[in-house]
Amino acid sequence: MPTLRSATLSPAPAATPSPTAATPSPAAAGTTPSSAAKRRMTARRAADSPDSPHFTSPHKSPLAGTGNFGAPKMLSASPKSSRKRLYGDLVPAERPKWNPRDPAQMQAVKEALHVATTPSCGLVCRDDEQRRVFEFCKACVQQERAGSLYVCGCPGTGKTLSISKVKQSVSRWADEMGMETPDDLSINCTNLGNTSDIFGKVRKKASGKLSPLQQLQRMFSHKESAPRRMLLVVVDEMDYLITRDRAVLHDLFMLTTHQFSRCILIGIANAIDLADRFLPKLESLNCKPLVITFRAYSKDQISNIINHRL
Ligand SMILES: Nc1ncnc2c1ncn2[C@@H]1O[C@H](COP(=O)(O)OP(=O)(O)OP(=O)(O)O)[C@@H](O)[C@H]1O
Ligand SMILES: [Mg+2]
């Protein structure tokens, strides 16, 4: 199944910027004011063009500036536009001819496509998934109710990146709406020494005889102790929390079911069947999370992503 990881180039180049990336080309350095002005105009014209990405909603999208959530037209980048990104806005005469045997050009391509590089073009092909996660969080914040979401998909399908973009969008949206922005917390389970340490990460100020889990349960069960703000918790690499009895997973999701819970829980994992394996129990406990699956990219989607990133 194709994922971006399998399609991109492997060695990690981020620490050593390429000569092309670090040093402006003589052509670029010698840019005349008139050509710079021309480039600015071209950019402005492109932004005003009906082909530039925009939301179809008459309202200003709360997701604006967070990537390409609602921009299907962005997906049809041509190889020509990818070359343009690689060489900035150089006019055609200034652009070096694409040569895959040129080590500097190849290095620039590797850097642009490396999976550790956050794509400057934003996320491509994940508008729908991001929108669904955003809508879920938005509803929770608006109604001041707790909830849980489970995001799954193969490695490299953009789960982590998508959710971090949505998290920013939710804060920005709440801010713009004059609502209290939710507190947010991101936990990567690969950094936990012990699966139950997750509760200590959520309840940072745990003290006294009760365990962090017990404190959280108590806190969310009483009106007086419940926090005022919503708490958006993103638990990444959730597969690491699977124990034989799955108690930690259950306890974690159950935190969203307490009467005064303010917890919006987003779990991210690779295992597609994790939901099937632990959902039946959660369903019987009345805390079934909404499941959003990030499907593997198709050949065309991978091609679009690569085009955009170059
Ligand atoms: N739709 C996309 N557009 C642009 N780049 C992408 C896209 N999807 C993935 N990538 C690239 O792949 C990298 C890996 O993405 P990400 O870490 O979000 O995947 P993941 O699904 O969380 O993988 P894992 O399950 O291994 O944690 C990103 O940093 C980015 O460089
Ligand atoms: Mg990830």
Automatic annotation (TrEMBL):
One of its GO terms (cellular component) is nucleus. GO terms for biological process: cell division; DNA replication initiation; mitotic DNA replication checkpoint signaling. Pfam families: AAA_22. GO terms for molecular function: ATP hydrolysis activity; DNA replication origin binding. Coiled coil: none annotated. Residues 144-267 form the ORC1/DEAH AAA+ ATPase domain. Keywords: Cell cycle, Cell division, DNA replication. Gene3D superfamilies: P-loop containing nucleotide triphosphate hydrolases (3.40.50.300). Residues 1-36 have a biased composition (Low complexity). Residues 1-85 are annotated as: Disordered. InterPro entries: AAA_22 (IPR049945), ORC1/CDC6 (IPR050311), P-loop_NTPase (IPR027417). Belongs to the CDC6/cdc18 family. This is ORC1/DEAH AAA+ ATPase domain-containing protein. The lineage of its organism: Eukaryota, Viridiplantae, Streptophyta, Embryophyta, Tracheophyta.
